[in-house]
Amino acid sequence: MDMAIASDETTRICDHCDRAIPSSNIDLHYAHCSRNLEKCKVCGDMVPKKHAEEHFLNTHAPVTCSLCSETMEREILATHKGEICPQRIVTCQFCEFPLPAIDLAEHQEVCGNRTELCHLCNRYIRLRERYNHERRCNGVPEDTVGSSRDVRPAEREQGAQRRQPPEYSRRRLLFTIAVAGVAVLLGSLFFQKTMETGPVI
Ligand SMILES: [Zn+2]
Ligand SMILES: [Zn+2]
Ligand SMILES: [Zn+2]
Ligand SMILES: [Zn+2]
Ligand SMILES: [Zn+2]
């Protein structure tokens, strides 16, 4: 007798759970299956009816992030906590202080502006520029090489400004007015003072 034919002939598919059941057991199985089991609407697993709710809660129900209290699909919780959650703890790249991710940008903005002495060239270097600086620092102290190289882009900028874009000339004008105003104010104060103290003959 052939085993394959034998097994084909002796199994039937249960209408309730879609599994192959030995023909001899199918009636008993179906009675038990349809009374006690139900198909999970989310994952399709057959779960005991009395544990269906538990199964849903433990396997499929949305979960709450313990850090930021946001509710989300269970599958993404680990990724959320590790890479996305605004309250996950990260460290400042400059001082390595641990802090919530949401505060990082603001902290690093301030932290990276702190300066530290470069012992090679004896200049104070912003922490945010330290990495680049250390790679090109040639150990020459102060202005000589450092500034002539650093100044060049600034000069180019000034050259461009000589053509006087409207914003620049407007600011210049306001500045001139302000200076003139202060001068007039000081002048009049001075004049008053000399009037008061001066001619008491
Ligand atoms: Zn079944
Ligand atoms: Zn399920
Ligand atoms: Zn979170
Ligand atoms: Zn820091
Ligand atoms: Zn240096």
Largest sheet: 2 strands, antiparallel
What percent strand? 5-15%
Termini separation comes to 144 Å
CATH architecture of the domain at 85-156: 2-Layer Sandwich
CATH class category label of the domain at 85-156: Alpha Beta
Bound molecules: zinc ion
Helix content: 40-55%
The secondary-structure class comes to alpha+beta
Overall shape: rod-shaped
The radius of gyration is 40 Å
N-to-C SSE series? HEEHEEHEEHEEHEEHHH
Tally of helical segments: 8
Write a compact overview of the structure shown.
52% of the residues lie in helices and 14% in strands. The chain is an alpha+beta fold.
Task: Note the main attributes of this structure.
single chain, 201 residues, alpha+beta, Herpes Virus-1, binds zinc ion
3D structure, described in words:
With about 200 residues, the protein is an alpha+beta fold. Among the domains are: about 10-60, Herpes Virus-1, CATH 3.30.40; about 85-155, Herpes Virus-1, CATH 3.30.40. The protein has 8 helices and 10 strands. A two-stranded antiparallel sheet has the order 1-2. A hairpin with a 6-residue loop joins strand 9 and strand 10. The longest helix is centred in the C-terminal third of the chain and has 32 residues, at about 165-195. It is rod-shaped. The chain starts with a helix and ends with a helix. Residues about 1-5 and about 145-165 have low confidence and may be disordered. It binds zinc ion (5 copies).
Helix and strand topology:
Elements: H1 3-10, E1 11-13, E2 20-22, H2 26-36, E3 37-39, E4 46-48, H3 52-59, E5 63-64, E6 71-72, H4 77-84, E7 89-91, E8 98-100, H5 104-111, E9 115-117, E10 124-126, H6 127-136, H7 143-161, H8 166-197
Antiparallel strand pairs: 1-2, 3-4, 5-6, 7-8, 9-10
